[in-house]
Each structure stands twice: as C-alpha cells, then as structure tokens.
Amino acid sequence: MNVGFIGTGSMGTLLIEAFIASGALSPAEVAISNRTYAKAQALADRYPGMRAEFMNADVACGSDIVFLCVKPHEFIRVVEDIKPVVRPEQTIISITSPVLVSHLEGELNCKIAKIIPSITNKVWSGASLCIYGDKMEEADKKKLESLFAHISEPIRIAESYTRIVSDLSSCGPAFMAFLLQQFVDAAVKETGIPRKEAMEVASNMLLGTGLLLTEGRMTPEEVQARVAVPGGITAKALQLLRRETEGVFTALIRTTHDKYREDLLKVSSAFYGEEVNGQ
Ligand SMILES: NC(=O)C1=CN([C@@H]2O[C@H](COP(=O)(O)OP(=O)(O)OC[C@H]3O[C@@H](n4cnc5c(N)ncnc54)[C@H](O)[C@@H]3O)[C@@H](O)[C@H]2O)C=CC1
Ligand SMILES: O=C(O)[C@@H]1CCC=N1
Known about the structure:
Blueprint: E1 3-6, H1 10-21, E2 30-33, H2 37-46, E3 51-52, H3 56-61, E4 65-68, H4 75-82, E5 91-94, H5 101-107, E6 111-116, E7 127-132, H6 138-148, E8 153-156, H7 162-191, H8 195-213, H9 220-227, H10 233-244, H11 248-272
Parallel strand pairs: 1-2, 1-4, 2-3, 4-5, 5-6, 7-8
Antiparallel strand pairs: 6-7
Bound molecules: 1,4-dihydronicotinamide adenine dinucleotide (NAI) and (2S)-3,4-dihydro-2H-pyrrole-2-carboxylic acid.
C-alpha cells in the first residue's frame, strides 16, 4: 500500500514515525512533501526508501491513501495542488476537525475520510477518531482502521461530535498534562521535593490511573470511592476539588467549541468563497 503525507510538521512526522516504528508501513511505501522541502528531505533521509517529493501533486499521484497534515487554513492551497491528479479509487484524509468531509468531497473526486489522531499515538496508545464520507466502502474503512490499529484504538464517530471527541482524545493530553504540571509545581513549592522525583511519581500515577480506567474496567467514580475512604485525607481533598473546579470544564468546552466555529467559518470561506463576518 502506498501512503502519502502532505505536511511533515509535528503531526505528520509523528504519524509517519509511529506507523514505521510499529511495522504498519515500511519506508518504501511512504511518500512525503512539505512546504519547506528540506524538512521533508531530512525526514526521508532518516528512512532509506522513503520518497520526499517537491510537489504535493506528486505525492497524491503515487499514493493509494493520502494524509493531509496541514493546519485548517492551509488546506485550500493543498486541495488546489492535488485536485487535478486525484483519482476516484484513492482516499484523501483530513486530520483536523474544522475541515469537514463535505469540504473535501465538494472539491476532490475521490474517497474522503477524516481521522483525528492524538499525540498519544506516538506511544501506540489513545484513540484515532474516524469519520467517513459517502464514497468510503466498508472495505476501505477496515483498511484504514487496520492501519491505525497499529498505533491506536480506531473509533468511529459521527461528524457532529468531532469537536467534543477531539477535545477528549486529542486536546485531552494537553489538558491532563497541564493539570499534572500544576499538581507537581505545587508539590515542589509547598514541600521542596525535587521536581524530577515528583514528576516521575505523578506521571506513573497518571499512567496507572489510565490503565485502571481502561484495562481495569473501573469507572472514575469507582476509582474515587476506592481511594477516598470515608473521613480520610483524599475525601477531604476531593471536597475541595469539587468546590474549586465547578464549571471549569463547561467553560473549557465552550471555549474549544467557539474557536472551532471560528475556524470552520474561515475554512468554509476559503472553500466556498463566502464572506466571513461581512468582510
Ligand atoms: N497537535 C496535535 O496533537 C494534533 C493536531 N492535529 C491537527 O494536525 C494539523 C497539523 O498540525 P501540526 O502538525 O501541529 O502543524 P505544523 O505546523 O507543525 O505542521 C504543518 C506542516 O504543514 C506544512 N505545510 C503548510 N502548508 C503546506 C502546503 N501548502 N504544502 C505542503 N506542506 C504544507 C508546513 O510546512 C508544516 O510542516 C492541524 O490541523 C491540527 O489541528 C490533529 C490531531 C492532534
Ligand atoms: O483539529 C483538531 O481538532 C485537533 C485536536 C487537537 C488539535 N487539533
């Protein structure tokens, strides 16, 4: 299977490295391009057999599946580059939420999917969120999901829930890392414990908690109940957490959704030439 990646920034590179390291793809199956060619070439140099192309169209032309790993506002440019060469049997994939399946279906005469990865896929963990266009047959979906199964848990979702599921799956690692950082920084400040030591303990705690919730089949409520014995230290601290965090995640979700709507308007404007906010 020939797989192309247009955009070898943070996410494009992460996916390429994870697919190759996991054995899902061999370098000879991969072709890449990037706005700054030298960056694509430097990546290809690390993997003998991988092809770095000057033109996005050359990546699209020679690939069965093409991942578009650019930012939302950069999509229209890439779509214009590849539009003349895509063929109906090919699959083109957006990895970003504000680029809708319908945006790409309106422009490209091929199969369209949206798969939102997560930084956790770097360590072959976490989910990949799969949304499919009308031209995708069940066999096409299975092929993509078996590719992503090497580095993640592929989960099919409705496009209407893309934003919230991306919050949980793809933004979530940043949110949890932020909370962990706050926890550790406070530990260092309050007690003088070396940061490295506190971070090692806390990171392992986060990993273990994730395993309890997945492989251990415990619910968050059960984890809390098992740790917070009545009248104990954790129970007291949980009371404080409940009080102090009330409404925080509602506000967070409203923030991500507002930004999403803003990005969606800009992408739609670029694709359909609509005016945005009367400008
Ligand atoms: N960072 C994350 O955890 C996740 C990011 N994403 C999505 O991945 C997308 C890419 O994000 P990053 O990799 O962080 O961005 P980035 O800025 O690191 O990478 C984008 C790459 O695209 C290249 N590029 C831009 N225009 C191009 C063009 N016309 N032709 C060829 N290459 C072009 C740039 O040179 C750059 O290397 C974003 O839309 C983001 O929403 C999705 C899931 C998770
Ligand atoms: O496009 C998105 O929704 C993803 C989630 C994290 C960053 N970008």
